[in-house]
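Weekly puzzle thread! Below is a chain. First person to post its structure in token form gets bragging rights.
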Amino acid sequence: MFNVVTGTGADAGAPLVSHPGLAKVAFTGSTATGRRVALAAAQNLRPATMELGGKSALIVFDDADLDKAVEWAMFGCFWTNGQICSATSRLLVQEKVAEAFLAKLKRRAEQIPLGAADGSPLCPGSRLGPVANRDQYTKVKAYIESARSEGARVLTGGGRPSGAPSDGRGFFVAPTVLVGVNPTMRVWREEIFGPVLCAATFATEEEAVSAANASNFGLGGAVVSRDAQRCARVARQLEAGIVWVNCSQPCFYQAPWGGIKDSGHGRELGPWGLDNFLSVKQVTEYVSDKPWGWYLDVAPADGGAEGAGERPPSPSKL
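Winning reply:
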């Protein structure tokens, strides 16, 4: 049986996750809401799996194929208009190739074809639609303005794309790349949930890993390099539940999905996802024809009542 209950968080979600008849909670959403859901479930000692927010990093090394790296950087952040928790929205590019990489990224981002607000294509092969609603649109634009005020520069985007409907339909945000971003800025630390890619540079592998891990989130991460050993080494060090090598965002139902730190706990998909819904039961059957005997052949202590001064039998009597 499968039931669907619709409603707002206050009217439907909160009563549901706090109900004592619930056996298990699996939540996907923001970190802030996830904390409230987990606390509500904990009041009834119910297990809860949390798949929460992210601010994943994509690391591009100077030996990477830049054209392929640009493609994955765009897909990793602009797919679904950036409205995906695993988006690799923090871009780390090695200094030696940063200028060439960002030039390619700017040119390609400005060529992404738009889709219409009603789902029909504005142009063939549309790949970018509007964000979900007015509130999300306002939030994304506020983050971009926050970055500007903190000293970041808009390499491309930052407003409504030129190809969007002229009558104002659709909450379109142009694919936006911010450069000159540093770790203290809100856009680098917080999940935006829109088509906004924040770029920074690094000099060494150690610096790149440190910058990628310097986040409260730990959902995803990606590394792009022709050096297989480097990719394996960086993948091991990234503090994330999901790591992509020479790609970003491919998802397979056979593979575990979930994060660490503020990105939650537990896993979805594959056998790991099923494990979250199972409870292990121990069943012990006594098959010996000998009595357990813990109360047999025990002499009373000091002539007291039978059973007084009992002691466990020796192993040979079990």
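Puzzle host: Confirmed. Bonus trivia for everyone else. Residues 110 and 175 are 7 Å apart (CA to CA).
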